[in-house]
Design goal:
With 290 residues, the chain is mostly helical. It is built from 8 helices and no strands. The protein folds into 2 domains: 133 residues, no CATH class; 95 residues, E3 ubiquitin-protein ligase SopA (Pectate Lyase C-like, 3 Solenoid). The protein is 37% helix and 0% strand. The longest helix is centred in the middle third of the chain and has 29 residues. The chain is globular, with a radius of gyration of 20 Å. Bound molecules: iron/sulfur cluster. InterPro entries: 5peptide_repeat.
Length: 290
Amino acid sequence: MFEDSGFDHTAAIHFRKGLRADCSNCFGLCCTALNIVASNDFAINKSAGTPFPNLQSDFRCQIHSNLRATGFKGCTVFDCLGAGQMVSQITFNGQNWRERPEVAEKMFRVFPIMEQLFEMIAYVAEALSYKASYSLSDQLHEQFELLQSLTKLDADSILALDMMTYRMPINELLSATSEIIRNEFISKISSPKSRRNLNLRGVDGVGKSFKGKDLRATDFRGAYLIASNLQNADLRGVDFIGADLRDANLSGANLSTSMFLTQMQINSTKGNKETILPTFLQRPTHWTDL
Ligand code: SF4
C-alpha cells in the first residue's frame, strides 16, 4: 500500500492507476444522486435523488452497451474513481437506498463530496509520482494522508466538510509541481524553434486547430479546448488540469507524459489507436480509427 511507502514514486503511480470505479459494488449512485440537465450528453432531465429510468433493480444499467446511441454519451464519460463503492460499502456499510430508503437522501448528498475527495486524491497521488523537491513531496504526502482520512469519516462528518479549505492548499501544491516538472521539460527542449508561448491557461481554443504542433510543456490549465483539433500534436509535459476537452480530436497525439489528465477528460474526447496516453489512463472503448 502507498500509505506505507513514503515517497515511493512508483507506488504513487500504482496507487493512481488503482483508482477505478467498481460498479458491481455500488448502488448506482451516479445514476441516481446527481442532477442531470438534458443536453447533447444526456437525453433527459433528471433531478438529484431520482434514478435514471434505465437503472434496474439490481443497480445495473439496462442500456449499458448502447448508451451513446441512445443519447446518453455523458454516462460513458463519467468516472467516480472509486467514490461510488466507497460510499456504498464503507460510509453506508453496504446498506442500499432501495432496501433502506431512510438512508437515501443522506447517501445521495455524501456521494458528490466523496467524488471531490477522490478527485483530489487522484491529483495528489499523480503529483507524488513526479520527482519534485523533498519539501513539496512532504507537503503532498501530508495532504494525501489527510484526504484519505477524510474519506473514512462517517456520513454526517463528510457532509460538514468545508471543501474549499482542502482544495486551496492542494491547488497550490499541484501548481508548484506542474511548474517544476514543466520547467524541467522546457530546459531539455528549448531551441529557437521551440520558443513559443507556453502559458495558455484558460485559453479559448474552442474549435481551433493545433494539428501536428509541438505543444510540449504548455500550461493548458482550465483551457477551453472543446472540439479542438489536436491530431498528431506533441502534448508531452502539458498540464491539462481543469481543461475542457470535450470532442477534442486526439488522434495520433502523444500524451504519454501529459499531467493531471483525468479519465473523464479522456472519455470526452475522440482518439484512435495511435494516441499515446499516460499509463494510468485507459483507452476509451468508443475511440475509433479516425
Ligand atoms: S458511482 Fe461510480 S461505482 Fe457507482 S455506478 Fe457510478 S461509476 Fe460505477
